[in-house]
Design goal:
homodimer; alpha/beta; 10 helices
Chain lengths: 244, 244
Amino acid sequence: MKAPIIILDHPQLGENIGAAARAMGNFGLSQLRLVNPRDGWPNKQANIMASNAVAIVENAQVFTTFAQAAHDCQIIYTTTARDRYMNKPVVSPRIAANEMVTTHGSLQSALVFGPERTGLENDVIARADCIINIPVNAQYPSLNLGQAVVVCAYEWYAASMNGTWQPTLDPTENVRATKQEMENLFIHLETKLDENGFFKTRDNKPHMIRNIRTMLTRANFSDQEVRTFRGMIRNLTESEQRFE
Amino acid sequence: MKAPIIILDHPQLGENIGAAARAMGNFGLSQLRLVNPRDGWPNKQANIMASNAVAIVENAQVFTTFAQAAHDCQIIYTTTARDRYMNKPVVSPRIAANEMVTTHGSLQSALVFGPERTGLENDVIARADCIINIPVNAQYPSLNLGQAVVVCAYEWYAASMNGTWQPTLDPTENVRATKQEMENLFIHLETKLDENGFFKTRDNKPHMIRNIRTMLTRANFSDQEVRTFRGMIRNLTESEQRFE
């Protein structure tokens, strides 16, 4: 599958170019193209904001027209927040990402973002195969350029990893306790509670025990945590004896 | 369903607080809480970066400890990029968002983000019900704070709208052409091509016609576009006559 090229058309702020590059790095994209960046190129702010993805900024290609920037692309997705009244499909970034990875996986795609103040010109959108519209709250509809790139790059990364897209951290190093370890804990705890007169009436005791077992089962203790809990019971009951 | 509170723990840069607020506005979140922002509060850079979501910055609540900031929350999701070796579930932002909206929809949740340089302290993560880990490219693993908020807020918004999460733009104002309009177009085009000797051999003609019909059918013309196309045919054939 080919990763999309990110094209920023007439971007204004170096900070947003750098933010876009940083998000590209996070989410597996590397080809950045700029059409006529307003403040010239290279741009120091872009390098600073790119942080550890500065290589993506340094390798960015600069063009004078959108047509040149898109010359070798085969399918173009343009982002816009405004109605353009053109006869083109309009999709969410999630649908676009899935299309890019599946149906159009063999094509060189481009994700195109317009200048901060005005968005893409209609002449650019007319060249697009598809329009991406990021759903937003109507009360705060204005998306930052760099943040729009975050959303689209993130969705592409998720789609490209398909079933293997998941946290990279190990959820736990611990081993879930066995039911025998839990049973021993319950008996330890209930015995101590019984000795200390916790169960006011004999009638109430089975109900209380069921509640305690329910609440502690839900905590999904590891074997180590069972040992810690039993240590706490020993500590508390020993302290109490010390005060007698 | 209750929207999550965003808690930024010891945030360093006002720009990132403002960027977080802006993304919150875009994606339907409004409650921002700060624990000990490094550069004090209020912070002018936060207001500038928040853009049209400046009200979220102005309404942010500031606390001196994480426990105070989370006092009325019922379920806490902390974000981290590093292994913490704690016995807690680790999920993607998409799974977390779906949990917040479905299983835990009646609980007041908090999404917690740590300081830029170090991430959350282990003591804060120990208070969390769940860890969110945003899958990233191992080559560029460092996420910007504001951009991490974008991803989590975006996923919450998508999950909260469930089946109704889709572009807000109207895909087209146009009416797809009827098959009779397409048939009339094909006959018009094929007649003119035939008059001009386009079909070199009689044998080849049915095959060429099928190719032309296939390629133009794929363009999914509207009724207006069929009229435009037929206008172009008339124009081109008239021009040709003028040159004779």
